[in-house]
């Protein structure tokens, strides 16, 4: 193979141009060396390229995928405990959210007509590939569960599909945490320990909200409890995440969407276990607040990540600290 | 990581050694790359960032020359700009063709692949433009091309290599700042060059991406820099994001099990 000619034996008489040593010659006048400012970026430009994902597609999918998955799990639980009204509402809601998810995912592609290329391979190193196969397993079961419930045909098949979708739904509702964490985006990556729990909590809260919104009061008790439990998990995970991340967590702590999401979820969950137990109107309002809260949380996480990708300090400073720590450890050893 | 790319390729791995100490900022590499690879126009803007108007690597910029102006002495050189110390650093940036490449790991279609030369290349007829590789890259190299909707980046001139030709940027570089060759040989050469530059008085010189034990397992395209990496827009300690993926999957598994248990508990009571 042709390559730049270089003599490895060092026998050359003349020095090649590439051996030039800048700064080795010349008569620099002595001057006071002014204190050197330490630049931590190249003209303030981000180190990372901005994710091309659009919030109305991918942040919306984080919400809809969570809603679909947790609703299917809630539907299975409702069906197995004899609450057909809640089961039907959750199954139909899950199917609608799944439709929205698929639209968002395909719409965000640069070449939507090639979406089936996702099925060429299975790669455990790519959460998007794993997610594709989760959706491939989950989708038909969620569809069958809703269709058999609505039509009354094939009840046995419907029950199997309901349980299958309920199990696959837990994977759908949580894998999206790995999807965004498996990137170099500082906030998303560093938060990978809490993100799955935050997403699971947010998904349960939204599924509970949907159940409260659409199911009869007498059957909605699991939805109300799921909303409360989900909101609690979401809030604990979010506050742990914000504290543990330190300076990198700044965009999370600054996010107004996240605060709004928490407020809406808490309000909906608390209303759910108080006034919404007796009043249909209050239940619907609480359910809507929970759905809006979960959506705000996902959009908030999405935008905090984008903000951290667009500011070089969130990339450079943690890496510098890591290097300094490694150096200190080496010197001690 | 059990898989050893260098061993697997049996010494066939090629790479770039970009010696920025002799870069003169002519941008011939940017032009040669555009011409050979038919890379479309990427904006004709005046940025005011010294002589840099291409800003950074992207789908439509596969070689990018950075220009850094500093009020710092360059060894014994007299800058000749009044009573001010001054030096001008230039560096031609490119895809690093990492040993552990995050873009390749996360690609859900298998469009990105590892070539027989140890480089990382996008198959544009397979890519569906999901954009996952873009935030996965710790260097901000790969991008999604607006006109075609698919990912694009440096291929290390994959189409020139079988013909025995070196990549267009290295071929055209008038000072040999960009050197192409077998990676092992380039690493040896870079070690000698680093000693030479440091002995000549540039004590701040360092190699970036040469170490096979770094966060990306060593880079197929590595650099001799005269200042901290971040000054050139490079991350000081890049780590392949998938290094933490096993732990991510464990946390996802726990959360999924928790979701299942939580919802089962809420439905358990009759009332």
UniProtKB/TrEMBL annotation, chain A:
Membrane topology note: Multi-pass membrane protein
Source organism: Nonomuraea aridisoli
GO cellular component: plasma membrane
Family listed: Belongs to the NrfD family.
Pfam families from the UniProt entry: NrfD
UniProt-annotated location(s): Cell membrane
Main localization of the protein described in the UniProt heading: membrane
Entries under Gene3D superfamilies matching the protein: Formate dehydrogenase/DMSO reductase domain
Keywords (A to Z) from UniProt: Cell membrane, Membrane, Transmembrane, Transmembrane helix
Name the record gives this protein: Polysulfide reductase
TrEMBL record, chain B:
Binding, [4Fe-4S] cluster 4: 107, 127, 130, 133
Top-rank taxon: Bacteria
Entry GO CC: cell envelope
GO MF term set: 4 iron, 4 sulfur cluster binding; metal ion binding
InterPro entries: 4Fe4S_Fe-S-bd, 4Fe4S_Fe_S_CS, FDH_Electron_Transfer_Unit, Formate_DH_Fe-S_su
Cofactor detail note: Binds 4 [4Fe-4S] clusters per subunit.
Residue ranges of domain 4Fe-4S ferredoxin-type in the record: 14-44, 86-117, 118-147
Keywords: 4Fe-4S, Iron, Iron-sulfur, Metal-binding, Repeat
Annotated localization: Cell envelope
Entry binding sites for [4Fe-4S] cluster 3: 95, 98, 103, 137
Cofactor (UniProt): [4Fe-4S] cluster
A GO biological process held by the record: formate oxidation
Classification via Gene3D superfamilies: 3.30.70.20
Residues binding [4Fe-4S] cluster 2: 33, 154, 157, 169
Binding of [4Fe-4S] cluster 1, residues: 23, 26, 29, 173
Name recorded for this polypeptide: 4Fe-4S ferredoxin
């Amino acid at each position: 193979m042709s390559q730049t000619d270089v003599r490895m034996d060092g026998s050359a008489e003349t020095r090649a141009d590439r051996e030039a040593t800048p700064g080795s010659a010349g008569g620099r006048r002595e001057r006071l060396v002014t204190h050197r400012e330490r630049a931590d970026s190249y003209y303030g430009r981000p180190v990372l390229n901005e994710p091309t994902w659009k919030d109305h597609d991918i942040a919306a999918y984080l919400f809809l995928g969570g809603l679909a998955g947790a609703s299917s799990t809630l539907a299975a639980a409702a069906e197995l405990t004899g609450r057909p009204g809640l089961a039907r509402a959750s199954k139909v809601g899950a199917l609608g959210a799944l439709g929205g998810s698929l639209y968002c995912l395909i719409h965000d592609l640069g070449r939507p007509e090639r979406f089936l290329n996702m099925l060429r391979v299975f790669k455990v190193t790519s959460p998007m590939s794993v997610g594709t196969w989760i959706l491939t397993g989950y989708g038909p079961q969620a569809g069958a569960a809703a269709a058999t419930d609505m039509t009354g045909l094939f009840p046995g098949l419907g029950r199997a599909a309901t349980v299958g979708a309920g199990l696959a739904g837990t994977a759908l509702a949580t894998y999206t945490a790995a999807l965004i964490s498996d990137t170099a985006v500082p906030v998303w990556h560093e938060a990978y320990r809490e993100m799955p729990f935050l997403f699971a909590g947010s998904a349960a809260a939204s599924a509970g909200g949907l159940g409260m919104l659409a199911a009869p009061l007498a059957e909605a008790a699991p939805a109300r409890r799921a909303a409360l439990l989900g909101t609690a998990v979401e809030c604990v995970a979010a506050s742990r995440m914000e504290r543990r991340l330190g300076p990198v967590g700044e965009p999370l702590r600054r996010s107004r969407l996240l605060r709004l999401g928490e407020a809406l979820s808490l309000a909906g969950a608390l209303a759910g276990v108080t006034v919404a137990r007796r009043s249909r109107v209050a239940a619907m309002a609480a359910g809507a607040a929970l759905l809006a809260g979960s959506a705000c949380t996902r959009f908030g996480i999405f935008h905090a990540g984008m903000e951290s990708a667009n500011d070089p300090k969130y990339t450079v400073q943690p890496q510098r600290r890591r290097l300094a720590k490694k150096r200190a450890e080496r010197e001690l050893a | 990581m059990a898989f050893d790319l260098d061993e697997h390729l049996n010494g066939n791995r090629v790479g770039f050694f970009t010696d920025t100490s002799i870069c003169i900022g002519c941008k011939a590499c940017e032009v040669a790359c555009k011409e050979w690879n038919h890379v479309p126009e990427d904006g004709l803007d005046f940025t005011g960032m010294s002589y840099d108007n291409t800003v950074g690597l992207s789908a439509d910029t596969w070689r990018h020359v950075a220009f850094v102006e500093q009020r710092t002495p360059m060894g014994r050189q007299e800058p000749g700009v009044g009573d001010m110390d001054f030096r001008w650093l230039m560096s031609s940036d490119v895809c690093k063709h990492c040993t552990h490449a995050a873009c390749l790991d996360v690609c859900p279609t298998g469009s990105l692949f590892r070539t027989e030369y140890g480089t990382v290349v996008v198959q544009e007829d397979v890519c569906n433009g999901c954009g996952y590789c873009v935030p996965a890259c710790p260097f901000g190299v790969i991008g999604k091309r607006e006109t075609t909707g698919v990912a694009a980046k440096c291929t290390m001139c994959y189409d020139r290599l079988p013909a025995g030709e070196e990549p267009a940027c290295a071929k055209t570089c008038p000072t040999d700042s960009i050197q192409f060759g077998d990676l092992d040989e380039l690493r040896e050469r870079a070690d000698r060059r680093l000693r030479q530059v440091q002995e000549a008085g540039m004590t701040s010189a360092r190699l970036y991406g040469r170490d096979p034990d770094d966060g990306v397992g060593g880079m197929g395209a590595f650099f001799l820099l005269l200042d901290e990496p971040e000054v050139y827009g490079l991350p000081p300690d890049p780590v392949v994001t998938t290094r933490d993926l096993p732990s991510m999957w464990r946390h996802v598994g726990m959360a999924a099990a928790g979701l299942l248990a939580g919802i089962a508990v809420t439905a358990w009571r009759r009332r």
